[in-house]
């Protein structure tokens, strides 16, 4: 199954278009490699998704073409959630 469709069906990301955009920005990895929206996801794969200041690592448990809310939660297992340190933008001092 395509990565963008899996993310939508599993409800890790609410909309397929948003999942596609996140993948295009290079914020999703499958088994340690940067993934495109068209990448194939299979059971046992490990997904690492960066949502702003949070990184979620999940293992794909099953693949379904469509799923109800209760079934969607069983499609993956959250392995870890980590917060990234907030990076303050550097300001250029023009007063030199």
UniProtKB/TrEMBL annotation:
<dbReference type="InterPro" id="IPR036986">
    <property type="entry name" value="S4_RNA-bd_sf"/>
</dbReference>
<keyword id="KW-0694">RNA-binding</keyword>
<dbReference type="GO" id="GO:0000049">
    <property type="term" value="F:tRNA binding"/>
</dbReference>
<dbReference type="InterPro" id="IPR002942">
    <property type="entry name" value="S4_RNA-bd"/>
</dbReference>
<dbReference type="Pfam" id="PF01479">
    <property type="entry name" value="S4"/>
</dbReference>
<feature type="domain" description="RNA-binding S4">
    <location>
        <begin position="1"/>
        <end position="63"/>
    </location>
</feature>
<comment type="function">
    <text>Key component of the ribosome quality control system (RQC), a ribosome-associated complex that mediates the extraction of incompletely synthesized nascent chains from stalled ribosomes and their subsequent degradation. RqcH recruits Ala-charged tRNA, and with RqcP directs the elongation of stalled nascent chains on 50S ribosomal subunits, leading to non-templated C-terminal alanine extensions (Ala tail). The Ala tail promotes nascent chain degradation. RqcP is associated with the translocation-like movement of the peptidyl-tRNA from the A-site into the P-site.</text>
</comment>
<dbReference type="GO" id="GO:0043023">
    <property type="term" value="F:ribosomal large subunit binding"/>
</dbReference>
<dbReference type="GO" id="GO:0019843">
    <property type="term" value="F:rRNA binding"/>
</dbReference>
<keyword id="KW-0699">rRNA-binding</keyword>
<keyword id="KW-0820">tRNA-binding</keyword>
<keyword id="KW-0648">Protein biosynthesis</keyword>
<dbReference type="GO" id="GO:0072344">
    <property type="term" value="P:rescue of stalled ribosome"/>
</dbReference>
<comment type="similarity">
    <text>Belongs to the RqcP family.</text>
</comment>
<comment type="subunit">
    <text>Associates with stalled 50S ribosomal subunits. Binds to RqcH, 23S rRNA and the P-site tRNA. Does not require RqcH for association with 50S subunits.</text>
</comment>
<dbReference type="InterPro" id="IPR025490">
    <property type="entry name" value="RqcP"/>
</dbReference>
<protein>
    <recommendedName>
        <fullName>RQC P-site tRNA stabilizing factor</fullName>
    </recommendedName>
</protein>
């Amino acid at each position: 199954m395509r990565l963008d469709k899996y993310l939508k069906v599993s409800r890790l990301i609410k909309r397929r278009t948003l999942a596609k955009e996140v993948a295009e920005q290079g914020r999703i990895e499958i088994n340690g490699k940067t993934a495109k929206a068209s990448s194939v996801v299979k059971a046992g794969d490990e997904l690492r998704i960066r949502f702003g200041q949070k990184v979620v690592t999940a293992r794909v448990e099953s693949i379904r073409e469509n799923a109800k809310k209760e079934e969607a939660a069983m499609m993956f297992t959250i392995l870890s959630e980590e917060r990234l340190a907030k990076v303050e933008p550097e300001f250029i001092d023009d007063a030199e």
